[in-house]
Amino acid sequence: QAVVDFERLGEHAAVFQGHDVGFCCLGTTRAKAGADGFVRVDRDYVAQAAELARTGGCKHFVLQSSQGANQHSRFLYLRVKGEVENLVQAVGFDHCTILRPAVLLCKRQESRPTEWLAQQFLGVVARVFPTAYSVPVETVARAMVASVLQPGEGKVEVLENGAIHKLGKA
């Protein structure tokens, strides 16, 4: 494990060398970092880390994005997620897997009342429609690993929420 300063990520290029696979779940919230900080973390840091990983020899990059990611979205969150997906794909990995989970079900240390309320509601909905609107973070993690052990066809593979559930239980 290595600790890096993302504001000076280029100075930590050695950390990204010699790895066949890269996993990226980096992100923040607009509430926590402001709009500019959100863009810097969720797009710029991720894109720079992907470039450093590729330069360091990474062949397969696995990116956790978001359901609804679209570079043309009017919503900042979805637009930034779509932009970073395109930037990561452009880096030129042999294989790139993008996971687009719906609402992540997890226990957080920080307080996010609206997200907590949504998780309570979606937890109930998930009992009836288990793959429709949410996914446990453990399932996403298993799907990320499985996507490397069982890579899909083609250079880029995009896994939507239902596919994440399926692969995460394999």
Automatic annotation (TrEMBL):
GO cellular component, one term: cytoplasm
One annotated GO molecular function: catalytic activity
InterPro entries in UniProt: NAD(P)-bd_dom, NAD(P)-bd_dom_sf
GO BP: import into nucleus
Residue ranges annotated for the NAD(P)-binding domain, each copy included: 4-151
A Pfam family per the record: NAD_binding_10
PANTHER family according to UniProt: OXIDOREDUCTASE HTATIP2
Complex formation: Monomer. Forms homodimers during oxidative stress. Interacts (via N-terminus) with elongation factor EEF1A1 (via middle-region); the interaction is direct and competes with EEF1A1 binding to guanyl-nucleotide exchange factor EEF1B2, thereby inhibiting GDP for GTP exchange and reactivation of EEF1A1. Interacts with nuclear transport receptors XPO4, IPO5/RANBP5, IPO7, IPO9 and KPNB1 as well as GCN1L1/GCN1 and LRPPRC probably through their HEAT repeats. Binds NCOA5/CIA.
Protein name: Protein HTATIP2
Natural source organism: Baryphthengus martii (Rufous motmot)
